[in-house]
Amino acid sequence: xxxxxxxxxxxxxxxxxxxxxxxxxxxxxxxxxxxxxxxxxxxxxxxxxxxxxxxxxxxxxxxxxxxxxxxxxxxxxxxxxxx
Length: 83
Known about the structure:
The protein is mainly alpha-helical. The chain contains two helices and no strands.
């Protein structure tokens, strides 16, 4: 009986660690993705300055989609942490 209680306590600690690592990885991945998008957009604007408006609009849309996915990932990790 005592060993079962100890295993449950250890599993709770591991799940908290997994949720924290998952939230961190989601934030890091979103940052890297948005950084790559920004760099590529600046290169594209440098090559074709006349298309700057279209490139900027597409960059903002894609950045928002990445942020949305990252937000969902962090929320899922927090639900796993507190549920």
